[in-house]
Amino acid sequence: MHLKAPAAAAALVLAAALWLALPIAGPIAGAEAKTFGETFPGRTYEHQEAQRFLEGLDYKDGTIALGTGGVQLSIPRGFYFLSAEHARRVIVDAWNNPPTAAEKVLGMIMPTDKTPLDDTWGAVITYDEDGYVSDEDAAKIDYTSLLRDMQEGTAQASEERVKLGFPTIRLVGWASPPFYDRHTHKLHWAKELAFGDQEKHTLNYDVRALGRRGVLKINFVAGMDQLDEIKGVIPAVMDMPQFEAGSRYADFVPGADKVAAYGIGGLIAGKLLSKAGILAMALVFLKKGWVLVLLALGGLWRLGAGLFRRGPAA
Q1: Which of 75, 209, 238, 290 could form a disulfide with 61 if both were Cys (CB 3.0 to 4.6 A apart)?
Q2: Buried (b) or exposed (e) across 146-169, using 16+ Cβ within 10 A?
Q3: Backbone φ and ψ of 157, nearest 5°
């Protein structure tokens, strides 16, 4: 149908009004980037390089589209989001990790009262498109028995580390036992790890959100002394990821969609822990003088001495 000029103009005005009334999809929907000065008013660093580094980052809140898996984050007040590129700068340049440690990172979540150079936690976001993870085993898992299996796997990996000249690693236990919310299809758990003769133990706190085609992973980088603080923000972080229509867990199409080779138990122990209980062996990767040891914690792959090891600040 063709419209005459007046009718066409009226139609365009109406369409524009309707378009403006709709919520805007994508990373800019309620996610306007803020400067360092806006996020941390009055904060300055004596070290000029540190100041320039922090001023070069964008600090976002609101709705963030991650661009993969059909999932977005709703970052409320009290937190800020760093994009994939800026998260890479923090992980590699500020925390002294090898570039490979940030290859699949989609971004980071941090508390608004702390900068990436402060002694605080950071939650690293990644996504595994391994398929639909069935939760049929969730209510049947014996987490005490699962922990023993993971501790045995850690002990085996520790022997390999020692042969390579690295400190021992020990899975002390659950810092927070696994919890799965069957209604939201999200889960979280935490492990306490000991490396060598270090008195301060490492905390691995993991949050997972299940979708139709994969799993969104939020991994906290922190020390055991920050456990209570992280437990306090877990409810808010659990609410942040939301899958879009068509990508939600409930949108799974049996017989048509890919199904992951592991369930909830395998997701906690490590995705390479198959239903048959086969544990993955530890691998070693060498790159530019860095050694990344992928540890089999009962089948769970981990990078080096923890997910990310912080070094001196920028």
Answers
A1: 75
A2: bbebbbebbebbbebbeeeebeeb
A3: -65, -35
